[in-house]
Amino acid sequence: MDLIEAIKSRKSIRGYKAEPVPRKVIKEILEIASRAPSGMNTQPWEFTVVAGDVLDSIRKANLAKLSSGETPGMEVPRGGYQDVYRERQVAIGIQLFQLMGIEREDREKRTQWTMKGFRFFDAPAAIIISVDKSLGDAAQFDLGAVSQTIALTALNYGLGTCIQGQGIMYPDVIREYTGIPESKKISICLTIGYPDWDFPANKVQSEREPIENITNWCGI
Ligand SMILES: Cc1cc2nc3c(=O)[nH]c(=O)nc-3n(C[C@H](O)[C@H](O)[C@H](O)COP(=O)(O)O)c2cc1C
Hints:
By secondary structure, this protein is α+β, with helices and mostly antiparallel strands. The chain is 43% helix and 13% strand. The chain is built from 8 helices and 4 strands; from the N terminus they run ααβαααβαβαβα. It has a 4-stranded antiparallel sheet, with helices on both faces. Helix 2 packs across helix 6 and helix 3 packs antiparallel against helix 7. The structure holds flavin mononucleotide. Flavin mononucleotide binds next to strand 3.
């Protein structure tokens, strides 16, 4: 697949076919994506691939926690966005809700949508990325590089992904079913699978700020 085409066509996929992704394919993707750069070539990323019964158990446990009212949270916290960042967050939310036919006041449908996120969008597999806590915050940058590289590589195999926080917002659940130790920070995950192109949210085309608004040209 052409590189520019891949970068331009990648988008977050939130609806998947049930078809499983062979372990061999995910292994190949991870092998290729681990060519991503990292500070001092530390390669801080550690992958945990979950699928089948294990992923189903995580989904169930996530939903149980969510419906019990336990507050979800990331081990690499984000949120509390303000100003233009809040505006962009709201804009993508509005786009997704419109596509999914979810009215602002429809609490039931909003809850269903949130639950889908905590179910890893019902993807057949997910790649959880963790990092040794001794490496500190700097390693998160490297995880961003490898995440995008996984997302782009997956396209070559006809697969879609969504870099996702929701699925890992109950880290205790993830630890229980995967054995990721406390010494590792569970940083991010990617849902992965064959896109269901009939799923409305997959039609989303997220916006980007024009380059002139975010670029300071100096000496050029
Ligand atoms: C660190 C990170 C966490 C994300 N977490 C979620 C999530 O929990 N749920 C979700 O629906 N999308 C999540 N996304 C996807 C973003 O919403 C998406 O990348 C953004 O809206 C741009 O859309 P695009 O990926 O289709 O270009 C996340 C993306 C990143 C990079």
